[in-house]
Automatic annotation (TrEMBL):
Region (Disordered): 426-445
Record's protein name: Predicted ATPase
Lineage, broadest ranks: Bacteria, Bacillati, Actinomycetota, Actinomycetes, Micromonosporales
Pfam families: HTH_77
Species annotation: Micromonospora pallida
Superkingdom: Bacteria
Gene Ontology MF terms: adenylate cyclase activity
Any single GO BP term: intracellular signal transduction
Gene3D superfamilies: Nucleotide cyclase, P-loop containing nucleotide triphosphate hydrolases, Tetratricopeptide repeat domain
Residue intervals of the Guanylate cyclase domain: 13-126
């Protein structure tokens, strides 16, 4: 460092930067690394020095810079990241990915350097970041207000930095042009595992757990083999939950069944580790390098879904990383060197040595109690339950199915059916003639050639050896009507009511449905609104294969898409066909069904049906933090259009593009937001529908706001509103009215904003989709806060929050909770304000919602609250709020006393 550089003192913001994967980049580029490093230094030095940063140290690929102004430091980081991203590097792979960490603390320089723990804290924050990411401490956030235009903060929660005993709240700086999605920060309190949470109790398997634990301790690759439903996953997860302390670098779980393409298996394993792909480098190299110096246990479940790809990943990990051990579950072994294959046995059906029930009976007792709503089977039933587990050979999933049957059968009835195998096969048939096992006749009820051994026979044990055989065994008992119902029910993704089943088949299915419930192929689950019918996933997969094999898939799935459109339409329109207030809660239970219908529309159905479904899910996706999912579905539907050449009306394309633009903006993809906004406008103009064009044009301001072009956005809003009024479609420009009101509020034009909103109230009231959002009341509440009118603010915001929570607008409800936090802070209740801010931020982080235009306002008030309360009290209140769910936070906000009822109100002050 030059001695002429004056180092700041007092509250100093320290910045550390370095290149993520610099050693790898240097090896990859060879002689080409030096010019890349030089350009990286030039760009950083140019942006950092321009912001009055004092460069203390440049060593290798690292910078250490001190700033007197925290806001300037944040702006410098954003400028530096944009400069790096926009630079013309020799190749995309040679672009350096720089991580940056900021911390503000009190420090005094001495002899040209700082000797302060604040410097080390900043370095640890930088070390926790990923390439392309800017992290800062809460102290920097407090001192950096206001943030640069367009910038916002994502609260990543409390983290323990390496070498520090306390926990630091870390924030990611968000801004246009910066990458948004990163793995968890690299801190000392990184979770030690990602094992799935167990939804039900684990029963038995003491001997198996001891044996498998010994094998995992002695061997680097242990594969647990067994049929579907044998309990492999549950045993593996239960075992590994007790091994977390033995693996200091973590126990990492991946269900390979969730990976749809073999080439994605190593990427999925990397994601489980918290790793990202590195440009120009195979993902397996990144994986092996990360694991080479660590002691980890990798749990790979359902490996038979992608056996070859999984085997390749395991082989590379074991040969390249000595500290890695792998526990795999599969239906077939890998055949890799050193692999120990352990076949999971059935649950024990013999009484325990201490005289207690066997593991199999204990499991059946536990699940039957749950199936009956907590009512434990009586002593008289236990004898029959023992008979059941003997006939089921102790297979866990068969026992689960038996417990489900006990919803509609007594233990004695079930035991009798299983004791006489032929009688059990004939039970509950809905046809005059009993079904027959396959005997060479292609017209027989079911073709069992794939399930029978060469001699064409099966013992009871063999019949239940696999889940496929168990389901086939049940399927053989079905007559044509019940078998067809089972196949068609496979199109449903989750539980459905009787009306849905009736709609699917366009007839009365009650008789066949009763048969399926009796045979435990469908579970009947009582609910407040009536009985719900659910198919277990293995049975659904079996029925879906039968559906395709019988040539019925197209018809059944098209019918399911039509049903999905029907239930979605009912969310918007009442039985009389009139529009009703949209409640997003009505869509939540059906999310799986809509995804299944969209999947079919994008692969085997029509894209137009998919776009209609997407249009109905537009608000739901954004309010649930699923804007990215909505964008992905739209991209798939565009691909389907290109694949089939299907003709889509311009009006429907315009609506889809407009929705896509809004999703992209909510997801922080601003270039994509602008691109689809332009496409929407072009398609809407082609359609010739003034109302549609007004709705599309009303979204013009959003990309401008996201890019910080507020003056241009305001002008666009005014033009759109005027245009819509001239053409008699003013109501369709309501989004532009709300955007303009927000912009007016932002620059303090409160009277004009209030007047604009007053004229919009009638329009909002006539539009059911917007009515439940109560945007007019929300914005009038913000105007009132700006005026210091706590009475009006309280009343407007409470109305808005009740409506938004009542109709399921969770993203918008977060804004309202934040606004009510301001009302509390301004009204002399800082602790409640801190709790509400913490609750809103926790929900916003959970649903991945950006703070939008109001973000700096919330942050400014939080800074003021911290000043009033002090760090400890503010953090305690904020933390307590973060532990609340959104419903609890809303209840807290709605319980805030009206300003006119407080003791300080003028109503209770004598004027005599």
């Amino acid at each position: 460092m030059s001695p002429r550089i004056r180092l700041p003192s007092g509250w100093v913001t320290f910045l550390f930067t370095d290149i993520e994967g610099s050693t790898r980049l240097a090896r990859m580029l060879g002689a080409g690394y030096r010019p890349v490093l030089h350009e990286h230094r030039r760009l950083l030095r140019h942006t950092l020095v321009a912001a009055d940063g004092a460069e203390l140290l440049t060593e290798g690929d690292s910078f250490f810079v001190a700033f007197a102004d925290a806001a300037a430091a944040v702006a410098a980081c954003l400028a530096a990241q944009r400069a790096l991203a926009g630079h013309d590097w020799p190749t995309p792979e040679s672009a350096p990915r720089v991580r940056m960490g900021l911390h503000t603390g009190y420090a005094e320089p001495r002899d040209g350097e700082y000797a302060s723990p604040e410097v080390h804290r900043a370095a640890r924050i930088a070390a926790a970041a990923h390439g392309g990411q800017v992290l800062c401490s809460a102290s920097t956030v407090r001192h950096a207000e206001p943030l640069p235009a367009g910038a916002s903060l994502l609260d990543l929660g409390l983290h323990q930095l390496r070498g520090f005993d306390d926990r630091e709240r870390l924030f990611q700086v968000l801004a246009p042009g910066l990458e948004r999605e990163f793995p968890r920060p690299r801190t000392a309190d990184t979770p030690p595992h990602n094992l799935p949470t167990r939804a039900t109790s684990f029963v038995g398997r003491e001997v198996e757990r001891i044996e498998l634990r010994r094998l995992v301790a002695d061997h680097r690759l242990v594969t647990v083999l067994g049929a579907g439903g044998a309990g492999k996953t549950r045993l593996a997860v239960e075992l590994c939950a007790g091994l977390v302390e033995a693996y200091p670098d973590g126990v990492w779980f991946l269900d390979v069944a969730t990976v749809t393409d073999p080439g994605l298996v190593p990427f999925a394993v990397a994601a489980a580790f918290g790793l990202r792909p590195e440009p120009g480098r195979p993902i397996m190299d990144t994986l092996v390098e990360y694991a080479a110096t660590r002691r980890v246990l990798v749990v790979l479940d359902t490996c038979d879904a992608q056996p070859a790809a999984t085997a390749a990943v395991i082989a590379r990990l074991l040969t390249g990383a000595r500290g890695v051990r792998v526990l795999a579950t599969s239906r077939e072994s890998f055949g890799l060197p050193g692999e120990v294959v352990w076949r999971i046995p059935p649950l024990s059906i013999d009484p325990s040595p201490g005289g207690g029930e066997s593991d199999a009976v204990a499991l059946l007792l536990d699940r039957t109690t749950a199936a009956r709503g907590g009512r434990r089977p009586g002593p008289g039933e236990v004898v029959d339950l023992r008979r059941v587990v003997h006939r089921l050979d102790g297979l866990p999933l068969a026992i689960e199915l038996a417990a489900a049957r006990l919803r509609v059968l007594s233990a004695g009835q079930l035991a009798e059916r299983l004791a006489d195998v032929l009688g059990a096969l004939d039970a509950g048939r809905d046809e005059p003639d009993p079904p027959r096992p396959w005997s060479g006749d292609p017209d027989a009820t079911v073709d069992l050639r794939a399930d029978l051994p060469d001699d064409g026979t099966r013992s009871t044990v063999e019949r239940h050896a696999t889940m496929q055989a168990t389901v086939t065994w049940s399927y053989r008992t079905l007559g044509p009507r019940s078998a067809r119902l089972l196949r068609w029910l496979a199109v449903f993704a989750g539980p459905v009511d009787l009306a849905a089943v009736e709609w699917l088949l366009d007839g009365d299915p009650l008789g066949s449905l009763s048969v399926l419930v009796d045979k435990s192929m469908i579970l009947a689950e009582p609910s407040a609104s009536g009985c719900m019918y659910r198919m277990l996933d293995p049975i659904r997969a079996y029925a879906a294969r039968r559906l395709a094999a019988d040539g019925e898939e197209q018809a059944a799935r098209d019918r399911h898409v039509a049903w999905s459109q029907h239930v979605l339409w009912r969310a918007y329109f009442g039985p009389d066909g009139r529009p009703v207030n949209l409640s997003l809660y009505s869509l939540d239970p059906l999310a799986g069904e809509f995804r299944a219908a969209l999947r079919w529309s994008a692969t085997g159905g029509t894209a137009r049906d998919g776009l209609r479904l997407a249009a109905g899910l537009d608000l739901w996706w954004r309010e649930r933090g699923l804007a990215r999912e909505g964008r992905l579905w739209l991209f798939r539907l565009y691909g389907r259009i290109a694949e089939t050449g299907e003709r889509i009306p311009e009006a429907e394309l315009a609506a889809a593009y407009h929705m896509h633009s809004l999703h992209a903006g909510a997801d922080g993809e601003f270039a994509e937001e602008l691109r689809f906004a332009q496409r929407a406008e072009a398609a809407a103009r082609q359609a010739g529908d003034a109302g549609l064009l007004a709705r599309v044009l009303a979204g013009r301001a959003a990309p401008l706001v996201d890019m910080g072009q507020f003056v241009e956005a305001e002008q666009v809003c005014r033009e759109v509103i005027a245009w819509a009024r001239e053409r008699g479609v003013a109501g369709d420009a309501l989004l532009a009215v709300f955007s303009l009101a927000e912009l007016l509020w932002r620059r303090g034009a409160l009277d004009e904003a209030a007047e604009l909103l007053g004229s919009a109230r009638t329009v909002e009231a006539t539009r059911p989709v917007e009515r439940g959002q109560r945007s007019v009341d929300m914005l009038l509440g913000m105007v009132a806060l700006g005026r210091g009118d706590l009475v009006a603010a309280h009343e407007h915001l409470q109305v808005a929050l009740r409506s938004r929570m009542g109709h399921g607008y969770h993203g918008r409800a977060c804004d309202t909770v934040n606004a009510l936090a301001v009302r509390c802070a301004d009204g002399g209740d800082p602790l409640t304000a801190a709790r509400l801010f913490g609750a809103a931020q926790a929900t916003r982080a959970r649903i991945r919602s950006t703070p939008g235009l109001f973000g700096p306002y919330w942050l400014r008030w939080q800074t003021e609250l911290r000043r009033v309360l002090g760090d400890a009290a503010f953090d305690a209140g904020y933390r307590a709020g973060a532990e609340l769910g959104l419903e609890e936070a809303a209840a807290l906000a709605l319980a805030v006393e009206h300003p006119d009822l407080s003791p300080a109100s003028s109503r209770f002050t004598s004027s005599w």
